[in-house]
């Protein structure tokens, strides 16, 4: 694995957690040099979370740089808080806020222009998998970004493949199912930009302390985007240890 594919584990707290939980993370969290660890906390906790054992991540940002967008958060504000990574296009944003592939692509562009690193989420709903259209669905999600950003976005961007049917359901894609899609994504993005051999591809969807080893052992899975298990310190630490 090339250096730029250092394993990565990103925790996504979503709209969960508390200052007390953050404090206990800060007291007991042990960083691991094998993997880059990112903690994506809710925006109000960014100031309290800023610390050196892990990189700080945000869960979303505006596609606009500034202005009359009540409730939104700009990339410059995130940068001021010490944020390095921004999750973008998470299926919950796409579902809850109607974010289209184009809006997601514009957000990726804004994040890159600010010098931050997008963790770009893609992944299919169950019916798409049942119809056998997974590759085409994921390809459309990622291709939209290429139309707005050019294929250079792959020099920096992290991609997270998260089948929607596996998110928060306890139903994980098998390592083989996950690798199949990761292998497809790798091949496609390398055709767009040969340097994408070094682009990190994370798997997300009910990763836990018991299944992380087998998932992360697959050749095109460079780590995980972790929801529920990132709220439990021991489980999150075990997942980080699995990312070698
Ligand atoms: C996520 O929301 O990105 C996620 C992968 O959640 P969970 O691990 O809880 O399935």
Can you give a write-up of this model?
The radius of gyration is 17 Å and the shape is globular. Strands 1-2-3-4-5-6-7-8 form an eight-stranded parallel barrel, surrounded by four helices. Helix 7 (134-149) packs parallel to helix 8 (175-192). The chain is 38% helix and 16% strand. With 244 residues, it is of the alpha/beta class. It contains ten helices and eight strands. The mean pLDDT is 94.
Descriptive key words:
244 residues; alpha/beta; 8-stranded parallel beta barrel; globular; binds phosphoenolpyruvate
Question: In percent, how much strand structure appears in the residues?
Answer: 15-25%
Q: How many distinct beta strands?
A: 8
Alpha-carbon distance between the termini?
11 Å
Large-scale geometry? globular
Adjacency order of strands in the biggest sheet: 1-2-3-4-5-6-7-8
Radius of gyration: 17 Å
* N-to-C series of helices and strands: EHEHEHEHHEHHEHEHEH
The secondary-structure class comes to alpha/beta
Unreliable runs, pLDDT <50, ≥5 residues? none
Number of helices: 10
Bound molecules: phosphoenolpyruvate
> Percent of residues in helical segments?
25-40%
Overall pLDDT score: 94
Topology:
Blueprint: E1 8-12, H1 19-28, E2 36-40, H2 46-49, E3 55-58, H3 75-80, E4 83-88, H4 91-96, H5 101-113, E5 117-122, H6 126-130, H7 134-149, E6 158-161, H8 175-192, E7 201-204, H9 212-216, E8 223-226, H10 233-242
Parallel strand pairs: 1-2, 1-8, 2-3, 3-4, 4-5, 5-6, 6-7, 7-8
